[in-house]
Design brief:
The chain is an alpha/beta fold. The protein has one domain: Rossmann fold (3-Layer(aba) Sandwich), CATH 3.40.50. Helix content is 28%, strand content 27%. The chain has a nine-stranded mixed β-sheet with strand order 3-4-5-2-1-6-7-9-8. Helix 6 crosses helix 7. The longest helix is centred in the middle third of the chain and has 14 residues. It starts with a helix and ends with a strand. 33% of the residues are buried.
């Protein structure tokens, strides 16, 4: 996907991918990561998700990366938090107590910039990318997080009925992208309430642990 595609989506407020509530699958399955208060969770391509405020309220620290600065400006405004803004390599860093968000290209993020994380929560990143980009994305996430455990939410639907994003992701897609670096466990599967853009879709929650 070209960067301009996402810039245009936010500029036009075409952000149907932004959920108006905390994701219930996060609430249900966060315990699978066996985290402690104060642990740091990485959210790739985070947008202004309400999951961030919820995770902060549970005592976790958050680090994210997002391509579109407008999304992060809205995130902090809606949390009523004034961030400190600085540069980190090619990225901008929006920082406040317990939260660091890097604005720019995910592939410009390094392990040194990211810092230590105990887990990754990926609700909307893997599925936002077309299949040709997934293995490169998965390798990047594995590299910069030192193979931290992941909670990954994906969708599967008839791709011929509509264009992504989000893109349909089969079990094979997950395996091809993350094995052998991770052991994959399917925590839950079921029909997505309300479907996806008017079409039926199945939703999956994966736990990825280092082999």
């Amino acid at each position: 996907m070209e960067a301009q595609f996402w810039q245009d989506k936010w500029q036009k407020n075409e952000i149907g991918f932004h959920e108006p509530d905390v994701n219930p699958l996060l609430v249900e399955h966060i315990s699978a990561l066996a985290l402690e208060p104060g642990d740091r969770i990485f959210l790739p391509l985070c947008g202004k998700t309400l999951d961030i405020a919820w995770l902060l309220s549970q005592g976790y620290r958050i680090v994210g990366v997002e391509l579109v600065e407008q999304a992060i400006e809205q995130l902090f405004a809606e949390m009523e938090v004034e961030p400190d803004i600085s540069t980190a390599g090619k990225l901008l860093r929006y920082q406040a107590p317990g939260i660091d968000i890097y604005v720019g290209d995910l592939f410009d993020l390094t392990a040194d910039i990211l810092g230590t994380v105990e887990a990754v929560y990926d609700r909307a990143a893997f599925v936002a990318l077309p299949p040709p980009m997934r293995e490169k994305y998965a390798a990047k996430i594995t590299e910069v997080t030192c193979s931290a455990d992941q909670l990954l939410i994906t969708f599967e639907y008839d791709q011929s009925l509509m264009n992504g994003p989000p893109f349909s992701s089969t079990h094979s897609d997950i395996e091809n992208s993350y094995q052998p670096a991770y052991q994959l466990t399917l925590l839950s599967e079921g029909e997505m309430p309300g479907g996806l853009k008017g079409h039926s879709a199945d939703e999956f929650v994966w736990l990825l642990r280092q082999e």
